[in-house]
Amino acid sequence: MTATATVHQVAPRGRGAHRSITAAVRAAADGDEIRIAPGEYVEALVLDRAVSLLPQDGTPFSVRVLAADPGRPALEVTAPGVHVGGVALTGQDPGLPAVLVTAGGLDLDGCDISGGRVEASGDAALTLRGCRVFGAALAGVHANTTGPTELTDTVVEDIDGTGVVLGSATAAHATGLTVRQVTGSGVRVRGRAGAVLRDCRVTAPGRSGLLVEDAATVTALDCRVEETGAEGVRVLGSSPRAQEAPERPDSAAGGVVLADCQVLRTGADGVSVSGSGDVLLLNCRLRDGSGPGVSADDDSRAALVDCQVDRPHGSCLVARGHARLSAQGTSMHGSHTGGLPAGDRSRVRLSSSEVPGGGFGAVHVCDDARLSLTACRIGSTPEHGVRATDRAELTVEGVRLSDCGLSGLRVDAAAGAHVRGLSVVRGGTGISADSSGTVVLEECDVADTERAGISCGTGTSAVLRDCRISGTGTAGLVVGERATPSIEGCTVRDATGSGLVLGPAAEPRVKFVTVARSGKNSLFVGEKARGTFEDCVFAGAGSEGPAFPAVHVSAGSAPVLRGCLVRDAEEDVAAEKGARPVFDDCLARNVTNPALPTRRTEAVPSASDGDPASGTTARETEAPAEDSLEDLLAELDGLAGLERVKHDVSSLVKLMRTVRLREDMGLAAPPLSRHLVFTGNPGTGKTTVARLYGRILAAVGLLGRGHLVEADRSALVGEYVGHTGPKTARVFEQARGGVLFIDEAYSLTQYAGTNDFGQEAIATLLKLMEDHRDDVVVIVAGYPKEMESFVRSNPGLASRFTRTVLFDDYGSAELVSIVEHQAAQHQYEFTAAAREALTAHFDAVPRGRGFGNGRAARQLFQSMTERQAYRVADLPDASESDLMTLVPEDLP
């Protein structure tokens, strides 16, 4: 109350007091205060000026205002700045407003409103603090206004309709709001309204706990919705959106954001999003719903980050229509039906999440849906862990499946799948590839299954690379009738049945495969089967009995085996009548009854790109033609950071040029070792500089080609006696005229024991380096401490590797430079603020042993472009500048 404000008294009797509130209002001016004696006042009260109404004695609800007319509210406000505190307001018709604000603004503080709703319209402002609204129909609070709405510590209950409706374009803030025992939805937000809900609770609504419609936006923080008659949260958007809009990023704000919320015991879905609705759940818990945990339909988008979905009666997550659904760091448990079905043309991404099984399997993708699974754990289920069918597309990276009764992964019909780093443990069949679509399996592990490890169905043509199968209850790897898969670099161990089985008329292409310790045949070739087997090892067949040869060839079949090794068996080959196998340059070792030769005519096998035992290859990078020394040195100088490395390499170049000049003049070359030790953490550019070094030596004329061959322990070391020398020689031969780059070279000496052949690889390398000292430069690389121990472990190594180049970790400025270089290459630009944020980001990153340096910088740039793409996708009219600009918000 201002210094000039007047206090007006209202009382049924007494001198100086108004007999009605209406009379006091007529006498009051803006800013005046009206004090009302206890009692019941029947009036059609209209506040058309900025006054305050308060009980005279300060006792809450000692003043009660009743509507005088059934068709009119108990209180109507048409002026701004109206305040009513501690008063009970009662309407006569529950379906009409008990309090109506058509203009201006009303602040209700500690009031009881019954017999009708509280309504604001037009551009009115409405505030309720510590109020109770009850006994209304249609709605308890209806703010259909363009003005602000504030609800604080207010209870809305016993409503025959919706608890709170926020519409038009109101900007609403609700803190400590409680809605309970309403027959409709708890809170409904529609139109272009925007609401922020903090620490709110909705209990036992007859319909949805929170209903968001049209183009409304809601942010709910630390709220609780429970015991709903329908969905816990329902989002139904109506704004247009292109069907192929990108998936929303996990950190983006959207139409509805729920953070630290709980949705419990719902009558239908925990969260349902449809139309063009958009919802993001952060650290939320959804539990005991009668339907799915989260369902996304139509053109909607839903994202979960660090959430829990527990014990839904339906699936944990559901995607249909053209919906986009993603979950990151989310755990799902106790579903009655399954973890995730995705159908129609939906797009789903799950990462770092746990998905339970159920009566219908854990993950099922069908129709034309696309599903990506990254670093997830899935199981257990009596059905399939993951199934892709119809024309669905599945991408899997680093996923673990366990205890799946049928198959860990099944791909059938015309579905496509690209799978890398999948681990399947226990259950029925590990992986069933029964699709006519493209199926690629890379670096997958299958262990301890009751049936086959991997099965390629009838007529299929899957691609398998570097997969490992062990401990299967029947066959290890099955190729079905007429199937034509490509199988490379795989291992099959400890199969109870045969290791590799070909069905009738199958024709696979098999390279660098090892089959070891199978209970029956290492390789069983069915009737009329064909196929090629190159550089394979079949070892330890017939553990179930001596009646099983390593290779069994059925009648009418004609497989071709080249460069294969059969060892540790009673019998190497058994062919039925009418079989026409071809064995080209194959060997038998430690076989009681061999049919194959037991030694090769050549001491060293011909050069090959791979290893027959492990399938590991040495990678060759060809040097570009016609490099000039000046261009190469400029390319070296253009690398970010590495100042010490640039100095060392430049010094070496000067030395090499001098050597070349002496040779050209017929002078004796000084003693010089061109072999180098590169030490440093990952991502510091060791491979890049090695590739440049080879090209520089070629430009100087000291190497013929200057190409780079990358190898590691697996490319050099064999698994049986007599294997390592030829294997190392093949890789060295591949590097002739260029650079042999051996990463983590210390691993050649780390495995001491009678069965390790790392020392044999070193001895072979040293001899070849001596015999071909002018043809190959060898660079060994790894962590500094380990490389120092490696060089000292052998006098031959110490005498040949006399020069070490240290690759320091990049500083923040250099990492920023790498990111900016990547940005320039891909036509992106940083704002000044983004550049500062990028520097601060790298300043805060620990520089431990596992820090990725340049690799981390490149990965960060990729992550920023993805986040920028998601951000820009939500802009209504994105400009070229928007598409090119990276801002601080794009940093993860």
What's this entry about, in short?
By secondary structure, the protein is of the alpha/beta class.
Task: Chart the SSEs and their pairings.
Layout: E1 7-10, H1 21-27, E2 33-36, E3 39-43, E4 45-47, E5 52-55, E6 63-67, E7 75-77, E8 82-85, E9 87-90, E10 97-101, E11 105-109, E12 112-114, E13 117-122, E14 125-129, E15 132-145, E16 149-152, E17 155-168, E18 171-175, E19 178-182, E20 187-189, E21 194-198, E22 201-203, E23 210-214, E24 217-221, E25 224-226, E26 233-237, E27 256-259, E28 262-264, E29 271-275, E30 278-282, E31 285-287, E32 294-296, E33 301-305, E34 308-310, E35 317-319, E36 324-328, E37 331-333, E38 340-342, E39 347-351, E40 354-355, E41 363-365, E42 370-374, E43 377-378, E44 386-388, E45 393-397, E46 400-402, E47 407-413, E48 416-420, E49 423-425, E50 429-435, E51 439-442, E52 445-447, E53 454-456, E54 463-465, E55 468-470, E56 477-479, E57 486-488, E58 491-493, E59 500-502, E60 509-511, E61 514-516, E62 523-525, E63 532-534, E64 537-539, E65 551-553, E66 560-562, E67 565-571, E68 573-575, E69 582-584, E70 587-593, E71 619-621, H2 629-637, H3 643-664, E72 676-680, H4 686-700, E73 708-711, H5 713-716, H6 724-734, E74 739-743, ...
Parallel strand pairs: 1-2, 2-5, 3-6, 4-7, 5-8, 6-9, 7-10, 8-11, 9-12, 10-13, 11-14, 12-15, 13-15, 14-16, 15-17, 16-18, 17-19, 17-20, 18-21, 19-22, 20-23, 21-24, 22-25, 23-26, 24-27, 25-28, 26-29, 27-30, 28-31, 29-32, 30-33, 31-34, 32-35, 33-36, 34-37, 36-39, 38-41, 39-42, 40-43, 41-44, ...
Antiparallel strand pairs: 71-73
Helix pairs in contact: 2-4, 3-4, 6-7, 10-11, 10-12
